Every structure is written in C-alpha cells, then in structure tokens.
Amino acid sequence: MSQTWTDQTAPSLDDFARLAEEAFAALPDLFRQAAGDVVIRIDDFADEETLRDLEIEDPFELTGLYSGVHIGERDSMGPAPEPSRVFLYRRPILDEWCERGDVGLAEIIAHVLIHEIGHHLGLDDDQIHAIEDDDD
C-alpha cells in the first residue's frame, strides 16, 4: 500500500516552537546560561524590511536570524538597548529539510538555533562553523 500523504500536514509554528524549545533545553548548560535572555521567535518568513536590509531577494534563503546587540558589545552598566532575539523561519527550514532529505527536521531546527545563538554570543560564521566541525 502506498502512502498518499494527503492525511499529513506541515509542522505548525507551534510545532516549531516546541522543537526549538527542546533543542535549546538539550544545549550544554554553559551554552544555555550564556544565551540567557535570548528570546526565540518562530515566523513563516522574514519580513520584507529584514529581507531588504539583508539584500535577500528570495525569502527561502533565510532560515534564521539573530537580532540584537551581542553580549560582547553590551554596556555592562545597563540593559541591552533591545531584547536579543533569535528568529527561526519555518517555511525556509521546511524547504531545506525537504531538499536535503538526509537529516531530521528537529536536527535542522537545532542547527539553525545554535548558529543564531552563536551570533548572540558574538561569534562570526567562521567561528560557528569551526565549532560545529569539531562536533562531527
């Protein structure tokens, strides 16, 4: 019997939030503590202003984004000027998951979350990739 997939639905924003919370909870204590006050938000896509600011034409190209002042640049005498947020974009992540086919959705969500938290901690892309390569 072949499966028609007509009884399946894509994971919702709430499903993504749950997977992101599970991924965050699974991080090492020191990494989680360092991330501290970061807010995780799930949206279908980045908004038009964000895409324009990043000069991204195809909204499917952006799976996540860190927004805020990273820890290393904050004024130690006061709060951050805005809350630190990690945005995870559901539709581009689903698209990547479908295209790859070799990794679970929860793993991709965790990867994007860790990458964006790395930016919160002041790491650049090369440093984050080096850390991820060390884990392989």
TrEMBL record:
Domain of life of the native organism: Bacteria
Xref: InterPro entries: Zincin_1 (IPR010428), Zincin_1_sf (IPR038555)
Pfam families cross-referenced by the UniProt entry: Zincin_1
Protein name: Metallopeptidase family protein
